[in-house]
Design goal:
single chain; 385 residues; alpha/beta; Aminopeptidase; Glucose Oxidase, domain 1; 2 domains; eight-stranded mixed sheet; 8 helices; 26% helix; elongated
Length: 385
């Protein structure tokens, strides 16, 4: 029996907690008539420590960006407020301080495989052309999480050291300002696991919930709740037979800029010539007092209507910041499920230390599991090959 609390630990890709929860899931799903497949991959592991900027007698704590490189020494600083100002800099060896227009939202990781907008590409090209010693971003409330301040860079491929802070009041442009970004990265081995329930056909119905977390959070809502729902589904159908093969996939990398588990899984599909017929992605569910919101993509209208009416689910707006999107873009029918208050309340909690066990109603996850089983059976019948 899977205990919810034991999977609510920090689970950043490559970290000890990630390995521990992966092993727990492997033991659990192997007892539920699932074959366990392991896809090894290389990943980047990040460690950080107290960091600061100091001028005269004023010392301010700054926070290393996830996956930042280390920076220590005395540097000139230059405040920059817009992309146009940034483009005017041609030769600067010091630390740039981003503010205002440049720090409204985070950048996608460099060369992100699923989505890399032109404006982010232009930003990286401009920064790397200048090649400063480092960058500090002055930020406030993250528009897509509970972090305040938040990093605008979260990039294992960016060689320039970066940090973030809520304010640098009292710090002025000057030479020889002491700055320390105590941050380092190293390579580590990890894995993507797949729990496969063989059907009569090799065509796949994929049920996913990402296993990993950001750093410094136990990730109960995001997304131990999804993992526990996967377990509930597998338990309910362990003795059932299906036309399709059912794959339960705890994606290892949704909160990681390298998305290594997702890339490993896509390669696995290609190497084995497996065809994913439909996807259900569970991410951020079970908050006390909430209900599940179901978003549909590339779906047959009649089947969508049947699911909404007969299974009594509530349809929500489409959203694109989850693991279903790599299949949406391939025109595969997808359902994404999240809590009804995710975009009004829970966003202020996700990715923070406040995402704790006591926020989750296990009964909601159990009921959601039963609803998803009914949907899987409809998909299995509707999409027979």
């Amino acid at each position: 029996m899977l205990k919810f609390a034991e999977i609510c630990i920090e689970r950043a890709v490559g970290a000890t907690g990630n390995e521990e929860v992966t092993d727990i899931l492997c033991r659990t799903f192997s007892k539920l008539n699932c074959n366990v497949n392991e896809l090894p991959f290389d990943c980047t592991v990040w460690q950080s420590n107290n960091s600061f900027i100091e001028q005269a007698n004023k010392k301010i704590e700054i926070f290393p960006s996830p996956f930042s490189r280390e920076l220590k020494g005395n540097f000139s600083i230059k405040f920059v407020s817009s992309l146009s100002e940034l483009k005017e800099i041609t030769d600067f060896k010091g630390v740039l301080v981003f503010q205002n227009e440049l720090t409204k939202a985070g950048l996608m990781p460099k060369n992100f495989p699923f989505y890399f907008p032109d404006e982010d590409k232009m930003m990286y090209e401009t920064i790397e052309k200048i090649n400063p010693n480092g960058i500090i971003a002055i930020t406030g409330q993250d528009p897509v999480s509970g972090l305040n301040p938040f990093p605008i860079f979260e990039d294992a491929n960016l060689e320039i050291p970066t940090a973030y802070v809520s304010s640098l009041d009292g710090i002025v442009e000057e030479n020889e300002i002491s700055i320390e970004i105590n941050s380092k990265v190293c390579k580590q081995k990890s894995k993507q696991v797949i729990f496969r329930k063989e059907g009569l056909s090799k065509d796949v119905i994929l049920i996913a919930a990402h296993i990993d977390t950001k750093h410094f959070t136990e990730g109960a809502i995001d997304n131990a709740s999804g993992l526990y729902t996967l377990y509930q589904i597998a338990k309910l159908i362990q003795n059932d037979k299906f036309e399709h093969t059912i794959e339960f996939v705890p994606f290892n990398g949704e909160d990681c800029p390298e998305v290594p588990g997702q890339l490993a899984y896509l390669k696995y599909l290609e190497d084995n010539n497996f065809n994913v017929k439909s996807v259900i992605n569970i991410d951020g569910v079970g908050h006390i007092g909430s209900e599940g919101l179901f978003s549909f993509y590339n779906f047959d209208d009649s089947l969508r209507t049947e699911i909404i009416t007969k299974d009594g689910v509530k349809e929500g707006e489409q959203w694109y910041s989850g693991d279903h999107c790599m299949f949406v873009f391939r025109e595969i029918p997808c359902i994404a499920i999240t809590a009804s208050d995710m975009f009004t309340h829970l966003m202020k909690i996700t990715h923070t230390k406040n995402d704790k066990v006591e926020l989750v109603d296990i009964n909601l996850l159990e009921r959601l599991g039963k609803t998803i089983v009914n949907i899987v059976k409809k998909l299995d019948t509707y999409q027979k090959t």
